[in-house]
Amino acid sequence: MSKQMSHLDNIPSTPGKFKMEKSPFVHNRLRWHSSLAKLAFWSFIFLALILIFFFRYPSSNPLPQDPSRRSLRTYNWGGPAWEKRVRSSARARSRNGISVLVTGAAGFVGTHVSAALKRRGDGVLGLDSFNDYYDPSLKRARQALLERSGVFIVEGDINDSALLKKLFEVVAFTHVMHLAAQAGVRYAMENPSSYVHSNIAGLVSLLEVCKSANPQPAIVWASSSSVYGLNTKVPFSEKDRTDQPASLYAATKKAGEEIAHTYNHIYGLSLTGLRFFTVYGPWGRPDMAYFFFTRDILKGKSIPIFEAANHGTVARDFTYIDDIVKGCLAALDTAEKSTGSGGKKKGPAQLRVYNLGNTSPVPVSDLVSILERLLKVNAKRKIMKLPRNGDVQFTHANISLAQRELGYKPSTDLQTGLKKFVRWYLSYYSGGEKAAS
Ligand SMILES: NC(=O)c1ccc[n+]([C@@H]2O[C@H](COP(=O)([O-])OP(=O)(O)OC[C@H]3O[C@@H](n4cnc5c(N)ncnc54)[C@H](O)[C@@H]3O)[C@@H](O)[C@H]2O)c1
Fold first, then answer.
1. Ligand 1 pocket check for 202: Cβ under 6 Å
2. How far does residue 183's CA lie from ligand 1's centre (Å)?
3. CB neighbours (10 Å) of residue 3?
4. Whole-number pLDDT of residue 212
5. What's this model's pTM, rounded to 2 decimal places?
6. How much is the pLDDT for 72?
7. Closest residue by Cα to residue 389 from 224, 226, 197, 193
């Protein structure tokens, strides 16, 4: 035993210096009882050194060197049948139809926008990672809905440049509606890197492929009202300051607006950012208050109602999904073509930012009262201090720019919109098989 230990001590510790032929053990070979034992011993040492090498120098492995790919899940894509589906889904059916790549198509807004585009005869191809930020079965149900209307959703990550390039090789998209993102303000404290991954790295990866595409598409993408952050001037106008984000989510959306400026400036990409204000409606997001309030009121659980300092009211400019969809389609329809080609700018290109809100903020306690009436259940309200985890006290959109330039005119009030949401919620979660978790 002690002999073996001393042998081990003599073995060079640096793998690079390890040379079997020059080992002192070669000269002592007669002391071994059998050549089999020798083979086993050396195999063990060799294996151990390989393991030490890989654990100590992981970056020497050529595979995970691209940091964007390291965090990507593997998805199956490609092949003639897949390309055929991609082409068919993206083909416009109407004479002047556009061909749109919708990222985040299995998401709340993405599903509604994709369905609306398809309905009017445009070609639509979806792209979504189906991540599990919230119940992926809801995303699958939206996917099934879209499939029925002829929209194929490719499963993949916007950070996968090879996939994006392939999609642009197969289809000459005229437009990209970019809605894929890590949403939600509070989750940013739990998983900050997911925001950097999707909202910053993912946006750059997408714009890189768009700038090199020939022709370059026009891009409309979702920013957020959260960029107004701690701004106190109401209603929020596009000219107001957006340099005081209150959450990492807001900061990544603000970064997105700056990144959009850069790609417009250098490569001539036509870019329109839409600052959505608290979107709600059927097929909505389970992490949003109106959604989980509904669930918790029905379960008899207490619901937190936040209050700002000095009993200040917390209010949101709730915007119904159909109004947002109209705004998105109007932004696509008024988007000018990108001016670059082959990655080179040929002239100035359009760069726009619009608020898409409802211009009528409603206190969260009123939202709860409407839900109580619609659900015919009294809520167990728990008044709590607004925590400093990203939420702002109120949002209120000035939409005159979108009104003037996009013809945007929201027409659904909260009472009407919530009625439609509750009807959907009750029918979707009825029967217990899809119990909201
Ligand atoms: N819903 C709102 O109130 C609201 C408000 C302001 C801004 N927005 C923005 O609007 C857009 C749509 O929001 P939503 O409410 O539909 O959210 P959502 O979470 O329902 O949809 C986003 C979709 O993007 C997908 N996704 C995320 N990261 C991805 C990646 N790296 N690659 C591919 N797919 C990815 C998700 O799987 C999801 O299906 C987002 O950009 C969001 O930040 C939404």
1. yes
2. 5
3. 8
4. 96
5. 0.85
6. 73
7. 226
| Cα→Cα distances 105→200, 203, 363, Å | 18, 15, 30
Banded pLDDT at 60 (limits 50, 70, 90) = very low
Q: Provide Rg for the chain, Cα atoms.
A: 28
pLDDT at 137: 98
103 Cα: distance to centroid of ligand 1 (angstroms): 9
Burial code of 282-319, b = ≥16 C-beta within 10 A, e = fewer? bbbbeebbbbbbbbbbbeeeebbbbbeeeeeebbbbbb
Closest C-alpha to ligand 1, atom 13 = 109
Whether residue 270 contacts residue 210, with contact meaning beta carbons closer than 8 Å, is answered with no
Atom of ligand 1 lying closest to residue 274 CA: 7
The encoded tokens of residue 105 equal: 């198509």
Cα-to-centroid distance, 285 and ligand 1 (Å) = 9
Burial of residue 23 (number of CB atoms within 10 Å: 0-12, 13-18, 19+): middle
Domain ranges of the chain: 2-65, 79-428
Protein residue with its CA nearest to atom 10 in ligand 1: 222
What's the pLDDT at 257?
98
Closest C-alpha to 199, from 175, 183, 218:
183
Model confidence band, residue 73 (pLDDT cutoffs 50, 70, 90) = confident
């949002």: which residue's tokens?
395
Helix count and strand count (H, E) for the chain: 15, 14
At the top level of CATH, which class does the domain 79-428 belong to? alpha beta
| Cβ of 129 less than 6 Å from ligand 1 | yes
